[in-house]
Amino acid sequence: MNPVTVLRRAFVLCTILCLAASPAWSGSRKQADKRLVRVACVGNSVTYGYGLRHRDRDAYPVRLQQMLDRLYGEGRCEVANFGHSGSTLLTKGHRPYIKTPEFRQALDFKADWVVIHLGLNDTDPRDWPDWKEEFIPDYRALIDSFRTVNPEARILICQMTPIFDRHPRFQSGTRDWHEQIQQAIAQVAAGANVQLIDLYTPLHPRPDLFPDALHPNPEGALILARTVYGALTGDYGGLRLPPVYSSGMVLPRDEHLLIEGLANARQNIRAVLSKDGRVVEECGAFTRADGSWCLELPHMKAGGPYKLTFTSTPLALKDYQAYYPEHYPFSLQNLTKAGAQTLVIDSLYFGDLWLASGQSNMELRVDLCNTPEQDLADAARLADRLHLFNMPARARTDAVEWDDSVLRYTNELRHMDFQLWETASPEVVAKFSAVAFNFGRVLCDSLEDIPIGIICNAVGGSTTESWIDRTTLEREMPNILTDWRNGDYGQPWARGRMTQNIAHALERDSAAYNPLQRHPYDPAYLFEAAIAPLGHLPVKGILWYQGESNAHNVELHERLFRLLEQSWREHFARRWQCESQQHPALPFYVVQLSSLQRPSWPAFRDSQRRLADELPNTWMAVSSDVGDAADVHYRTKRPVGERLALLALRHTYGHDLESQGPTLRTAVQGQNQTAVLRFDHADGLSCTRGFEIAGSDGLFHPAAIHVEGDRIVLSSPDVKLPAAVRYGWSGFTDADLCNRQGLPASTFQSRIAH
Description:
This protein is α/β, with parallel strands linked by helices. The chain contains 22 helices and 26 strands. Strands 6, 8, 9, 11, 12, 13, 14, 15, 16, 17 and 18 form an 11-stranded mixed sheet that branches. A 5-stranded parallel sheet has the order 2-1-3-4-5, with helices on both faces.
């Protein structure tokens, strides 16, 4: 062992032995023996309750005491708060916890359960840069001190609560050092054989609960107390699945399926898949210390309906330790009395599952479009082949001021309405996304006997940044998180609508006053409210139609869209964690913005085209030929869904068919002051309008168009030597370049080679 570590532990042990000999120590122990359990909450200002107006009522140890009283009965346990504001775990830090009076009091308390939450103040530049190598040995010494005064003590150490982007040192080091300390804490837990509590995950999506970016308000302290309570007791509310798991759903065919859920700790989880009363497959798992579990179903062929039954039953501690000794290293007093629980998914189908997201043009319902009779007639014949799960917003982002109830449930990440799985009847389809339905319709007609499931969670007006997870934004674009409503990252229209919706929360004399009020347009919000609750669902691919609320800034959107794909691929790819083989990137099928009289849209459409060309497993459907000059919500959605389906049939399912319109291959100068363009996907090429050419002066002029097979010859009397070409370059365009299949070309611009 490192000599410094030996001396450090010797110093701590001497301190403990001196305290143990004191009358105060022995008297405290004698009195405490009358109680079932003594819980010591050790920590810094978050444990202490700094910033809470009524810390004697709202600090997390106080709320924890109330929860334990309800479980065990009053007087059966004692929770003591040994938090000291500003304290560091590091003994050479600027305010070491082991030198505080609270440390001595905690040792004197001789706790049965010790919950330690330290490390936040070690992110100070006075501490971590110089003394990081001593963090793990210092933490081990602290743990040893509590084990020395009570060898039977159960020690639990905490992954730290979040520090948010508004913290003044967030980008200068706090963000990075916080992450490094989290990793060190996990190492300590494994090395010291103690239970690890994750205080970060339940609070990281709730920046509204941290007024100073560091200390939780009363609601945040309550979440913290519930998390610690669950770790101490194993009571996590019983058997649960992500809300999208329900009767009538579609799960993926022909691949290993990882299903994740929650239950009380130390439970045996069994899953039985049956059909017509006969067991087809059976598998099981045990819950971990944090209540999580996952089990794996084998490959299943397309079809259904099946019945999937989950049961949880208490497991003897000795049996659990045989499988997961690292989770319960000591004699855990799990006193929850819950018996067996059962969840049943009826009418389960195996097929292909797709996720449709974005903003209002993806959200637009069938009954609001211009082909409802045709669409609803198609819905009637699909029977059990197409399954739909709708997640509409519970409150629309129209030009209204939200009341207190909407403000509250929006902050609680309950803005989305998780409805039930339903088959594609006319009544159901009428209120479902027209784009997503028509995508599913074509897949059902093309893929015989394969059930298709579609989840739609589009939100009108939503921004690209609202769909990206917070960690990715903190890493790659942290400034976008800081006061987005008053900054210049968001489109002025979107920021103004957000301000209008949450106006009541911004009034200081309002009961709902909260300057950190959340909104669906907020960066990271819709990932946290609409994507994360799906769990790591094994979707086949993504249908994405968004951009109207980001078209003001093409360059920013190019960065954001890359981050969005990265964010979702990392999230949903976790379904493969139980397999070693590599899988291709999750496919994204994107709808290009349509035609509308907005000046930035041509450049934005061209940017979307280039992104689809550059990014892996990303393809784009063109919609500019069906747009409306005066209405962003054009009604001709049926062909858009069909074009997305053609792309998926070609690239995901491998069908040999034409799936996209003409794309530029080369552009060169021709004879007699012409430009010659050659195209791919050009069988039956036709065009009468939409091209412009420019000379070296950069002034564009309408071009005469001559089609010759897969090439187009352009000319203009105003351009002597063509140097550039562009197509469909106006907000609303009637450009008509397409191929024999009627698939249109994208807006584009290009240099012309000599």
